[in-house]
Design brief:
The chain is α+β, with helices and mostly antiparallel strands. It has one domain. It has five helices and seven strands. Helix 3 crosses helix 5. The longest helix is centred in the C-terminal third of the chain and has 22 residues. It starts with 9 loop residues before the first helix and ends in a 5-residue tail after the last helix. About 25% of the residues are buried.
Length: about 170
């Protein structure tokens, strides 16, 4: 029995290789970038079925995990790390929310480089000042990264809903 080796062009092999996620920063770096000099108190929770359903209904978004990774910040507000589903992989990101419940900053922790349009500071700046129940229809999606950018919008809506309904519900 004779074997023949086929020579496959390098471009075909390269396109068949899985894409690699790029790490932009870790959690500690994001915390210090968003809240310089602050301290962080871990406030991790697991959503029960009622909380899970409330967030889905309130934010009108998919919730992929019952785990909430939140930190209460010594200077006020919240630091939350989350993941959303991009086209081909998960996108890890962090959000800083002020004590008034508005988004201050969004940072990408890790995502596939081919969908890194969401890492552009001008695009992420669209979330500044967004609040629970606010208008998100004016957030421009990124051509070529439409799924990733729309999932980020949904994720941030979910975070704001989680803070308002579960972590720091209004008193009175």
């Amino acid at each position: 029995m004779k074997f023949q080796f086929l020579l496959v062009p390098a471009a075909i092999v390269a396109s068949a290789m899985p894409a690699q996620a790029k790490i932009y920063m870790d959690i500690a770096q994001a915390q210090q970038l968003m809240f310089p000099g602050a301290t962080f108190e871990e406030h991790f929770i697991t959503l029960d079925q009622t909380q899970f359903n409330e967030i889905i209904q309130d934010a009108n978004v998919n919730v992929y995990s019952r785990q909430v990774k939140a930190w209460r910040v010594s200077t006020g507000g919240w630091f939350i790390v989350d993941q959303v589903r991009g086209k081909d992989d998960w996108i890890s990101y962090a959000v800083s929310v002020s004590s008034k419940g508005t988004v201050d900053q969004v940072e990408i922790l890790e995502c596939l480089e081919k969908y890194d349009g969401i890492t552009i500071p001008e695009w992420r700046a669209q979330f500044h000042g967004k609040k629970h129940g606010g208008n998100f229809t004016n957030v421009e999606l990124i051509s070529g990264s439409t799924l990733s950018s729309s999932q980020m919008v949904q994720g941030i809506k979910k975070i704001l809903s989680t803070i308002d309904l579960i972590l720091a519900p209004p008193t009175g």
